[in-house]
Each structure stands twice: as structure tokens, then as C-alpha cells.
Specification:
The protein contains 16 helices and 21 strands. 33% of the residues lie in helices and 21% in strands. The chain is α/β, with parallel strands linked by helices. Keywords: ATP-binding, Glycerol metabolism, Kinase, Nucleotide-binding, Transferase.
């Protein structure tokens, strides 16, 4: 039998291919960044053709570095930036518009229009989500309403929609030559169109949005063989057997399979997922109800999620927009050059505030400034903002779950920052734990694919792979913790009600 699983991780800033062995260890990696396109304030786009080209190239990089061929790969898993919407022509394979990224806020007018009948929670009982620019549904509507000819083509059945997992799967399995048009339950649960109980597209909601059902991919489980790579691929005839949206994949990679288990991913944004098992829990505290995973014919597992829009991308902003640092890694040294934040708080509401506030009218603010504050304090305030936002979400999880989280498993690129993780433990008052394999997003997709083809036998095999790398325990006094959090919440209050008729 082939000895490895390949995971395609189609993320917000880059596409990666990572090859894993049976122990869940990384064998090799290929990675390419893609262009971030900002046509206007609040608009964020990607070029789907560039993403697909890069996907093929990183597969070649990963295979080449490990001196492996398709015969060594048992299966392929896909994980992806979840709500980013691609619409393309089924006959030509060409996108009709750039991918509209999950961070994009251009669809607020569509959200407002849909909310006139029933408010932002109009569909929340069925889909677990409030009406928001974050999710794919309004992005499809925008394309249909703003791209010339798109509405007519869609009504004629000539357009296909997919999040980037579907785009990669369709191209990898043949594209216009019989490509598989499918997604899994986790990605489908982020569109605003999937009923959480039936796991099917809801025709009444589609009608309210004005989106033809013919555009939508088939909803499948997270772990099954969807098809095989086509003859033009380096992976030809290899089964594609796992799909999980990136945050669900990270949860799966952390072996948080059971109710009550949770993880927090530190990426472009932060995403905390709390597994609620086979029970749908409707949040009363600003969290999303979503699908955690579904393995083949087994029952679906649900989750509560706290989504934070801007965390790692705030550090990129310090680098790219302000030139405060020349690499993301430098932010830790700059933050360590001062003892505290100097009274400065940075609320990065660049795309409004996501969980638990859901305030699209908010915009970023740096508050508490005095002549004393220097660039070290600003770097520290940026790092602390990541941890403060996570505390906001943990408080909501604790309230919804009725029990307090006792430790937080973490993953993602920013977990290389020890200063951040110590402050995270301090401001939460609970231990923060990082696993040996921090690339849990790709690992989760690999696990889903491997389970489908028998590479791993069961979840116990995967639990046995998880190993603790390091643990941070709280060292801050409770009074200081609460003082800092009070000031943070005061800072958040200063960002609200910014966008109105005067501010586009």
C-alpha cells in the first residue's frame, strides 16, 4: 500500500501541498502565495486561475522534495478558505469574476436588503448563521447582479459556484472534461444555504436570495472518495477522499473529535471551534452554529464557532501598510522591547467586528495614545489584540456551553510566537497548549482522506498521533487580567457606529 497522504491546503494567502506519513508527521511541503487584490476599500479578491495554477505547482514541489510519485500517495485531502466564492462557466471552465474573499464587505447592502424581512437572524434557525457579508451566499448574489450576463447564464444552468475546495476538486478531477462538482458538509454549512438538520440545500432560502440551485455543488460527507485526479495531473488516478473547511480541518487535526473538545487557530483570522457532538446548539452569545465533520455514513458532528476576522493579517498590515516591521517574525522582538502596551489598545476592525459582536459598522481603532507610546507598544498592542479577541470568543463559548473551557489547544502560524501565547494564557486564565505538528489544518484534511481509504483505521489511530509540544500557564494576577480586559472592551466600544451614510 502507498505510504503517504497528500493534503492540499488552499488558504487565504497561499496554496500548499503537504505530504504526511502514517504518524501524522510532515514529510515535505510545497507552498506559493497568491495575489491579494483590493479593488476598493472593503473589497478583497483572488484570481481563481492563479490559485489553480499554484495548486498544481505546489503538488509538484511537495512530490519533488520528497522524491515521491503518485504511486506513493494513498489519497488526497483538500482543505480551504471556507466562505470565499468562485463562480465559473461550466462549459469553458473560466471564472466569470475574481473569487470574492471571505473578508470582503461589499455585500452589506445585499445583507441589509435580505434583513428587511426578519432581521439578520432571518435564516439562523435553519442554517446556524446570521446574515453577514462573511458568508458565501451574498457574494454569489453580488456576482449575479453585477457581472454582465451572469444572471442569464446562471438561469440557463451554465454557471457553477463553489468555495475553493470545490474549485480545486472540479479542476483536479477533469474540469470541463467531467470534473466532479461537489463540496462537503462543513463548507456547505458556510454558504447560508444548507439546512443543518437535513444537510441539504434549502430551496426557500435559495429563492429568497435568487440563486439557482443548478449552480450549487452536490453536498457530500467530509470523508469519502469523491473522484480521482485526472490524467493531466501529477496525481492521476489518485483518489480525492477528504474535504474539510480549514477551521474544521484544524479541529480534526487537533484530534478534537468529541463533544466538549475545542481548538483555536491563529491564521489570517482566528477561529475557535467547540465540538458539540451530534447536538445542534444554537448560540445565544454571538457564535455560529456550524458542522464540525461527517465521516462517510456516520452521524454528523456539529460545533459552535467564534470567527475573528483580523488577527494574523494585522501583523501583515503592520509590515505591508505601515512598514513597522520587515517580516512577521520581527513583531515579537519589537513587542518584547517594552514591558507592556503603554496604555495603547489596537482594535483591528478592518472588516467590521465578527464574533461575538457582529458589527459591520465598526472600523479599526488605535486608542489610549500618549507621547509615551512608541512602535514597541504598538507592536505589543497588535499581538495583545489577537489574545483579547480570543478571550471575547471564549467567554461566549463558556456562556453557550454552560461549562468553562479548562485549556485551549492552539495551532496556526502565529503559534510560533511565544510572547503571544503567554499573554493568551494570562488573559484567559487557562493553560494554552501547542501540539508537535502545528500544521493541523492540512493534517485534518489528510486524516479525513486517509480514513476514507483505510490508510488509518479509526479515530483512535489519529488520537494516538497527537503529541503536546509546549504548554503555557497563566502567570498574571487576576486583578490585572480583569483590568486589561475592561480597557480592551472600552476600546472596542470606540470602534462601533463608525460606518454610516457619511462613511462609505
Amino acid at each position: 500500500m502507498a505510504d503517504y497522504i497528500l493534503a492540499i491546503d488552499q488558504g487565504t494567502t497561499s496554496s500548499r501541498a503537504i505530504i504526511f506519513d502514517k504518524a501524522g508527521s510532515i514529510v515535505s511541503t510545497g507552498q506559493l502565495e497568491h495575489q491579494q487584490i483590493f479593488p476598493r476599500a472593503g473589497w478583497v479578491e483572488h484570481d481563481p486561475a492563479e490559485i489553480w495554477r499554484n495548486t498544481g505547482e505546489v503538488i509538484g514541489q511537495a512530490l519533488g522534495k520528497a522524491n515521491l510519485t503518485r504511486h506513493d500517495i494513498a489519497a488526497v485531502g483538500i482543505t480551504n478558505q471556507r466562505e470565499t466564492a468562485v463562480v465559473w462557466d461550466r462549459t469553458t471552465g473560466e471564472p466569470v469574476y475574481n473569487a470574492i474573499v471571505w473578508q470582503d464587505t461589499r455585500t452589506q447592502a445585499i445583507v441589509d436588503r435580505l434583513a428587511t424581512d426578519g432581521g439578520v437572524e432571518r435564516f439562523k434557525q435553519q442554517v446556524g448563521l446570521p446574515l453577514a457579508t462573511y458568508f458565501s451566499g451574498t457574494k454569489i448574489v453580488w456576482i449575479l447582479e453585477n457581472v454582465p450576463g451572469a444572471r442569464e447564464k446562471a438561469e440557463a444552468g451554465d454557471l457553477l459556484f463553489g468555495t475553493t475546495d470545490t474549485w480545486v476538486l472540479w479542476n483536479l478531477t477533469g474540469g470541463v472534461e467531467g470534473g466532479v462538482h461537489a463540496t462537503d458538509v462543513t463548507n456547505a454549512s458556510r454558504t447560508m444555504f444548507m439546512d443543518l438538520e437535513t444537510l441539504q440545500w434549502d430551496d426557500e432560502i435559495l429563492a429568497a436570495f435568487g440563486v439557482p440551485r443548478s449552480m450549487l455543488p452536490e453536498i457530500r460527507s467530509s470523508s469519502e472518495v469523491y473522484g480521482v485526479a485526472n490524467e493531466h495531473s501529477l496525481l492521476r488516478e489518485t483518489p480525492i477522499a477528504g474535504i474539510l473547511g480549514d477551521q474544521q480541518a484544524a479541529t480534526f487535526g487537533q484530534a478534537a473529535f468529541d463533544a466538549g473538545e475545542a481548538k483555536n487557530t491563529y491564521g489570517t483570522g482566528n477561529f475557535l471551534i467547540f465540538n458539540t457532538g451530534e447536538e445542534i446548539v444554537h448560540s445565544k452569545n454571538g457564535l455560529l452554529t456550524t458542522v464540525g465533520y461527517k465521516l462517510g455514513e456516520q452521524p454528523v458532528h456539529y460545533a459552535l464557532e467564534g470567527s475573528i476576522a483580523v488577527t494574523g493579517s494585522l501583523i501583515q498590515w503592520l509590515r505591508d501598510n505601515l512598514g513597522l516591521i520587515s517580516s512577521a517574525a520581527e513583531v515579537e522582538e519589537l513587542a518584547k522591547s517594552v514591558e507592556d502596551n503603554g496604555g495603547a489598545y489596537f482594535v483591528p476592525a478592518f472588516s467590521g467586528l465578527f464574533a461575538p459582536y457582529w458589527r459591520p459598522d465598526a472600523r479599526g481603532a488605535l486608542v489610549g495614545l500618549t507621547r509615551y507610546v512608541n512602535k514597541g507598544h504598538i507592536a505589543r498592542a497588535a499581538l495583545e489584540a489577537i489574545a483579547f479577541q480570543t478571550r471575547d470568543v471564549v467567554e461566549a463559548v463558556n456562556a453557550d456551553a454552560g461549562i468553562d473551557l479548562t485549556e485551549l489547544r492552539v495551532d496556526g502560524g502565529a503559534t510560533a510566537n511565544d510572547t503571544l501565547l503567554q499573554f493568551q494564557a494570562d488573559i484567559l486564565g487557562v493553560p494554552v497548549v501547542r501540539p508537535v505538528v502545528a500544521e493541523t489544518t492540512a493534517l485534518g484534511a489528510a486524516y479525513a482522506a486517509g480514513l476514507a481509504v483505510g490508510f488509518w483505521s479509526n479515530l483512535d489511530d489519529l488520537r494516538a498521533n497527537w503529541q503536546e509540544d509546549r504548554r503555557w500557564t497563566p502567570s498574571m494576577e487576576a486583578g490585572e487580567r480583569e483590568r486589561l480586559d475592561r480597557n480592551w472592551k472600552k476600546a472596542v466600544s470606540k470602534t462601533l457606529d463608525w460606518v454610516d451614510d457619511d462613511v462609505a
